[in-house]
Amino acid sequence: MIDVMEFALDHAIVQMPDGSLRRQKEGIPMGDSLSPAMTIITCAWMEDEWLQSISDADKARFTARRFMDDVLMVYAKADDWDHDAFIRDFVRSECYWPPLKLEDAKEATFLETTFDLRPDGSLEYWLKNDNERERRVWRYQHYRSHAPFAQKRALIISSLRKVHKMASDRRRLYTSALDKLREFIALSYPSTLLRSACNRLAYTTGVGTWIGIRNSIDLIDASRLRC
Questions:
Q1: N or C: less crowded end of the chain, CB within 10 Å?
Q2: Above 90 in pLDDT, residue 147?
Q3: Are 112 and 105 in contact (CB under 8 A)?
Q4: Cα 178 from Cα 172, distance rounded (Å)
């Protein structure tokens, strides 16, 4: 297996638009099927090295989980433990070696989920959307792009299914679905197609909220998201 990974590291070949071939000389190969596994192994090895360098007292004060390149850490605050110094050291990347470095994530966001702590201590969550208030990321192809209609329809339905799965309750489902639909409206997807997708979600999930979402499509103001 090591020989296979070394071969992948040394033979990452990319064909450019002009037909020329380029070899990636540094880093984990882009687009290789082994790259996710190599990334996880590399991070896990660094984390193990770091854990061996800290005391048992420090280990007892925090817990952390990483999924791919996202890290979520929960730590204790106590008068007899300098938690601020501990976090500063971690953020300074004493755990991960250069050129890897930690970057701040968006507040109240982990992976593809945005969450909020309710007064009763429970969590509500919904699909993260960087285009929630204004267009920041061009995530989907334009409706007038050269692609089959079936592909565009499948894109809408799969995106809305993800919205459905990631919503903690019907209120969050309603708001996050409308945010997602604004993205498609801004890319000139016709409202008839979007309403049809909502009908499909209502039928396949049995959740009537999708009917309310469908009925609200014509009220969406996409002016801030237009191309």
A1: N
A2: no
A3: no
A4: 10
Burial 94-103 (b: 16+ CB within 10 A, else e): ebbeeeeeee
Residue 102 lies in a domain: no
Q: Counting Cβ atoms within 10 Å, is residue 48 exposed (0-12), middle (13-18) or buried (19+)?
A: exposed
Q: How confident is the model at residue 210 (pLDDT cuts 50, 70, 90)?
A: very high
Q: Is position 98 within any domain?
A: no
DSSP-assigned letters across all residues of 83-96:
HHHHHHHHHTTSSS
User: Residue type at 205?
Assistant: T
Separation CA 150–CA 169 (nearest Å): 30
218 domain residue, yes or no: yes
Residue pair 184/156 in contact by the 8 Å Cβ criterion: yes
Structural domain that includes position 79: 2-91
Query: Side chain identity at 58, as an amino acid letter?
Result: D
Q: Between helices 191-205 and 170-186, what is the axis angle to 10°?
A: 150
How far is 163 from 125, CA to CA, in rounded Å?
Answer: 11
Overall domain count for the chain: 2
